[in-house]
């Protein structure tokens, strides 16, 4: 025989709890997808920045540059696949695997930033804004996953409804934030430095054209 608990209809708090759980899952998946696209773009830009140093000078590129370029390319591919899967499902897949992966990669990027500020390995202190932007997006995705996990634990004891309007508003704000962070990191990469400013796209006969752009492009071609 079925117990009364099994046949009893769902109460209003239970329905609200399921709605809130669905809303948090959708938000987490969509944010992971949007931020994952930004992570993939920044990781690819970091790989390109490291690869641009391979042809400079007569000495071969150091091992850390090769390792960083390969690792960044792999990370860009993984982030792109995960972002597409999250957007298609409207839910972040394999969160239990993604969390330790994000912790590991973000720790490596944090160590890279600290090494640059310390002056390793070339002796000149620098702050890589591309890696910094990449780290910021990775930590934001990790924070969303942690929030989602905590929310799932608390939902059975709370009656909070996550409306579609709230989810859409949060996604709009998230998209703007991710785009701002990714744009900053891409502009600081080697590809961003060689990009022609928008104001110069319609220049005719060399008017208002910055000759420094052509000089950078010639140097890049010479190095390769």
Rg calculated over all Cα atoms? 23 Å
In terms of quaternary structure, the protein is single chain
Number of strands: 0
Strand content: under 5%
Low-confidence stretches: 3-8, 12-20, 201-209, 220-224
**Structural class of the secondary elements?**
mainly alpha
Q: How helical, in percent, are the residues?
A: over 70%
Number of helices: 8
pLDDT averaged over residues: 75
Straight-line distance between termini: 77 Å
The coarse silhouette is: elongated
Q: Give the biggest sheet.
A: none
Order of helices and strands: HHHHHHHH
How would you portray this structure in words?
- The chain is mostly helical.
- Helix content is 73%, strand content 0%.
- It contains eight helices and no strands.
- Helix 2 packs antiparallel against helix 5.
- The longest helix is centred in the first third of the chain and has 40 residues.
- It is elongated and about 55 Å long.
- The chain starts with a helix and ends with a helix.
- The N terminus and C terminus are likely disordered.
């Amino acid at each position: 025989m079925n117990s009364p608990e099994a046949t009893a209809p769902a109460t209003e708090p239970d329905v609200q709890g399921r709605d809130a759980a669905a809303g948090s899952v959708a938000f987490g998946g969509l944010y992971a997808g949007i931020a994952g696209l930004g992570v993939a773009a920044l990781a690819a830009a970091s790989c390109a920045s490291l690869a641009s140093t391979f042809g400079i000078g007569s000495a071969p590129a150091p091992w850390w540059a090769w390792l960083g370029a390969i690792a960044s390319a792999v990370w860009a591919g993984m982030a792109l696949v995960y972002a597409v899967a999250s957007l298609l499902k409207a839910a972040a897949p394999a969160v239990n695997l993604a969390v330790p992966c994000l912790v590991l990669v973000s720790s490596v990027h944090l160590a890279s930033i600290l090494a640059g500020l310390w002056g390793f390995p070339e002796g000149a202190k620098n702050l890589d804004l591309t890696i910094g932007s990449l780290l910021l997006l990775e930590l934001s995705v990790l924070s969303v996953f942690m929030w989602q996990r905590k929310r799932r634990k608390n939902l059975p004891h709370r009656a909070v409804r996550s409306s579609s309007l709230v989810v859409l508003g949060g996604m709009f704000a998230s998209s703007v934030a991710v785009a701002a962070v990714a744009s900053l990191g891409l502009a600081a990469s080697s590809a961003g430095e060689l990009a022609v400013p928008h104001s110069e796209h319609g220049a005719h006969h060399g008017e208002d054209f910055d000759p420094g752009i052509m000089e950078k492009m010639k140097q890049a071609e010479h190095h390769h």
